[in-house]
Design the sequence.
């Protein structure tokens, strides 16, 4: 049986974004990740990912735009 080739699609997130998220996750595991506004320790997985993505966004990485909240 021949292995099926995966279709090459457009990547949503760049390499820099994944590196920043990975770094934030490691910091969260070690307990050294702090939130920007209050400086409190971050324990949430989702928050760690959000911090990594916003850092990547700031440093010019390929990250999709934030979703707008509808009022």
Sequence:
């Amino acid at each position: 049986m021949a292995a099926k080739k995966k279709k090459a699609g457009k990547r949503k997130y760049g390499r820099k974004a994944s590196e920043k998220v990975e770094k934030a996750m490691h910091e969260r595991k070690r307990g050294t990740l702090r939130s920007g506004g209050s400086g409190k320790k971050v324990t949430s997985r989702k928050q760690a990912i959000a911090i990594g993505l916003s850092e990547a966004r700031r440093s010019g990485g390929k990250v999709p735009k934030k979703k707008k909240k509808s009022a």
Observations:
- The chain has a mean pLDDT of 87.
- Residues 15-58 form one domain.
- Residues 1 and 41 are 51 Å apart (CA to CA).
